[in-house]
Fold this sequence. Notes:
Blueprint: E1 2-6, H1 11-23, E2 26-31, H2 38-45, E3 51-55, H3 61-70, E4 76-79, H4 86-91, H5 93-114, E5 119-125, E6 137-140, E7 143-146, H6 163-182, E8 186-192, E9 194-196, H7 208-217, E10 222-225, E11 231-236, H8 237-249, H9 251-254, E12 257-261, E13 268-270, H10 271-282, E14 288-291, E15 300-301, H11 306-312, H12 320-333, H13 335-342
Parallel strand pairs: 1-2, 1-4, 2-3, 4-5, 5-8, 8-12, 9-11, 10-14, 11-15
Antiparallel strand pairs: 6-7, 11-13
This protein binds nicotinamide-adenine-dinucleotide (NAD).
Amino acid sequence: MKVLVTGSCGFIGTNVCLFHLKRGDEVVGIDNLSRRGTEFNLQVLKNYSKFRFYKVDIRDLKAINKIFKLHQNFSIIYHLAAQVAVTLSVENPIEDFEVNILGTLNLLEATRRYQPKAFFIFASTNKVYGGMEHIQIKLKDDKYFAVKYPNGIDENFNLDFHSPYGCSKGAADQYVRDYARIYGLNTVVFRQSCIYGPYQFGIEDQGWVAYFCIQALLDKPITIYGDGRQVRDVLYIDDLIEAYWLAYKKRKKVLGEIFNIGGGKENIVGILEFIKYLEEKLGKKILYKFAPWRPGDQKYFVSDNTKLKKLLSWQPKISFEEGVEKLLLWIKQNKCLIDRVIK
Ligand SMILES: NC(=O)c1ccc[n+]([C@@H]2O[C@H](COP(=O)([O-])OP(=O)(O)OC[C@H]3O[C@@H](n4cnc5c(N)ncnc54)[C@H](O)[C@@H]3O)[C@@H](O)[C@H]2O)c1
């Protein structure tokens, strides 16, 4: 089969490409290489003869159309390219709008025009639910928890786009869903919690699990936004890719659907708790400082994965401890290079 991956050299994109390349599939990748670390990931992907790469910006509809005309019959289109940082979206909301909304619309239009049968996967975010300020939050063991949501947040929770990033991803999420209704495209939306794993060059503002691990291993300080008592459910990349793959295999069941996806209540971790965990695991003190809360930051987000379990029989397989071990190993093996990339 042949698949298209936008954002192919980013964290999730690289892992998705590798999954297909290792299966022997043809992979067409699109990326503008704007994210740090993407050049490194590109070199890894170039080791595979079935990988074809286009350095293209998803805002450029002409270039996108050209690729779609050239390559017929994508079985799956993974739309992962995005402006991913909340703080950058506040600094430059127009660019954020253009990449996340116009870029997504370009991909949907090219799909509608040239490859309407392709299965279209969109990586959305739990940020579409906003800061969730109205839910009752309590503090226990220096971590927040949501009193009425012991199983997490499901897809019926009110949308409340907050921050330009929340707005642009939320609008794109709704466009992708609506293209299934209005044009009959085969789309599915995944509202992802924190995903982590190898090939993730985490930064202060995005990809915090990898950011913490990289900073800790390289003896650099960590910035924590807010008070560090926030709680997240973290999901290892292989589990996310398994959900994407199951969605494709059982596509008739999921067309036009939206899924929350994360580590769920079994893989919950607080920000400060994670630092303590790393300190014990690595046997060293980690330097950290606090910065103000970012707009729309949730005190608690845990994904209720029930819908995914019901429709796709999916659930996370890789525990938090196991996943962090794999991530640390990747960082250790590529320490010199990562050190150069993040300078
Ligand atoms: N990693 C997570 O925890 C997480 C959580 C929720 C949602 N998501 C979503 O998943 C997707 C992938 O995230 P990621 O963590 O791999 O981020 P990433 O930054 O590693 O990957 C995004 C890729 O898109 C590319 N890109 C950015 N702007 C582009 C443009 N205009 N044209 C072409 N390419 C462009 C970047 O160079 C990068 O390679 C994003 O849509 C993100 O919003 C990620």
